[in-house]
Design goal:
- By secondary structure, the protein is an alpha/beta fold.
- Helices cover 45% and strands 14% of the residues.
- It has helices spanning 41-69, 72-85, 88-99, 104-120, 124-145, 166-171, 190-198, 234-242, 270-278, 290-293, 302-315, 320-324, 365-369, 373-386, 402-421, 438-442, 444-448, 458-466, 484-499, 517-522, 535-543, 547-559, 563-569, and strands at residues 3-6, 8-9, 14-21, 157-161, 177-182, 202-204, 218-222, 227-230, 253-254, 260-267, 284-288, 334-337, 392-396, 430-435, 453-456, 503-506, 527-530.
- The strands form two sheets. The protein has an eight-stranded mixed beta sheet with strand order 1-8-7-3-4-5-6-2, with helices on one face. It has an eight-stranded parallel β-barrel with strand order 10-11-12-13-14-15-16-17, surrounded by five helices.
- Helix 9 links the parallel strand 10 and strand 11 (284-288).
- The protein is globular.
- The structure holds phosphoenolpyruvate (PEP) and magnesium ion.
Length: 573
Amino acid sequence: MSRRLDGTGLTAATGVGPAWWLDGSDPADLPTRPDPETIDPSTERDRFGAAREAVRAALERERERTAREVGGEEAAVFDAHVEFLTDPAIESAVDGSIEAGHPAPHAVRDAFAGHIETFEAMEGRMAERADDLRDVRDRLLRELSDADATAGPPDGAVVLATRLTPSEVTRLDPDRVAGVATVLGGGTAHAAILLRSMGTPAVVGVGEDLRSVDDGVVVGIDAATGTVHVDPDPEVRDRLESSDGPPVVHDRVTTRGDTAVTVAANVGSAAEARAAMERGADGVGLFRTEFLFLDREAPPDEDEQYEAYRDALAAFTRTEASDAGDPHDPYARVIVRTLDVGGDKDVPYLDLDPIENGFLGVRGIRFSLGPGRDLFEAQLRACCRAAAAGPLAVMFPLVSTPGELDEAVAILEDVLDGLRAEGVECARPELGVMVETPAAALSAAALARRVSFLSLGTNDLSGYVMAAQRDVDAVSSLADPLQPAVLRAIDRTVRGAREEGAWVGVCGEMAGDPDLARLLIGLGVEELSMAAPSVPAVKAAVAAIDDDDARRVAEAALDAETPEQVRSALSIQ
Ligand code: PEP
Ligand code: MG
């Protein structure tokens, strides 16, 4: 009998196929420990050393392949794995255990256990690091057991798993897997980021009910709605099978009432910008530059950043239309956000303190104007140099006062003066501000007076308006962008920007939900920026919008008292 299970959908894609549970054999299930007298520590140490080198080589190969085919942000996951693999604390625990008479596999399992437990006990994204550790441990154990690589899923299967590790995701061939569903896991885990950018129809966090689905049962994945259809009815099956997803459209789209809407992509590297262009993105609405700073020992220097920003611009070749337009034609605009660290974004070598640099501390622009001032100047130099090559814009994260913005712009002017005095080719970038705090939304007009656009970071804005930390599961229904208070903050931002002739975009996750395009356009938003695979579906949704209907929906949503009422105004669940 057909039934539906709900979870978190990662892309606007669908797929149908027979269920196939990822091999249940747990590499951490080891045979009984042999008598320590029979163990030769030096042989075991050599075995461990050889396994570690083999795993390191495999991680590096996968890193390169991912950087080439998916993007730098996703590839950085493998650098994090190499760090775990070579962590001196783990290494010395393995060594101590071998010395005490344990064989290498048992020593590895024991050495990782404590670290995995520590991460599991944490909240939010830190808890997801336990998956990464387990992944590295299992690679080592597989290497030590000489087991054959587990056979992959049959062609066209829907892969089911308790949870997926990033390396399990990269071993899936997106052209051969019909879909993915997991019992556990959230939308911000590394594995989810990878699945989203591969465009695989995937629903994560379905819950324990998923375990009742046996191998071979037909499963339909509707990642747009976050639904897993078990043994679907023929009509549902036809719909899921025949939906290839909307076609890639390279032209700009307008609503039915001719309102132009820029549909841009969020990226973390130049490679991702290239992939986004191929999916029809009109430009980059958010370059999360912190990804250039992650998983390394020291920050990227000015030249490295310059090349990344210039290459991202180069990904968006000029069209005839953009040649005819102004130099900041939105077809090609790349918006670089200056370094946004603190809160849940840690960069180990910057020694950030969880409280001092936490969600209400020195993060975003506060860090750049304070302890991160040198990094900020180097980044602005790189941006001004890249701006000579094309329509690059710079925006500042987590601004709360016009004074902070004035300070940031004054530093940018000094940087430009310095570059010009040195005779270095440069240009003044277009400027924008992220609206992520209630203060910024309430002061939108004052901010807009100083820049040409405001970009709503609705992930953080929802968290701060509702006083609900975005990575704490227990308050996730509060940190919901469809809370009417958040929508009123968006409305207030658009009105303030309009008074000053600035345009408004949304680059938080809600911009990638095709069901919400009508609401955001109705509220007056002009640019939507999202993970690249969502671009075609959002372009299709924009093209179907009736402007009067969008305005009516926006008004109803602003009058609502609950997110449920907003959803019912939008006729979504
Ligand atoms: C946001 O807060 O909505 C945003 C886009 O920034 P990030 O998710 O990188 O904090
Ligand atoms: Mg943010």
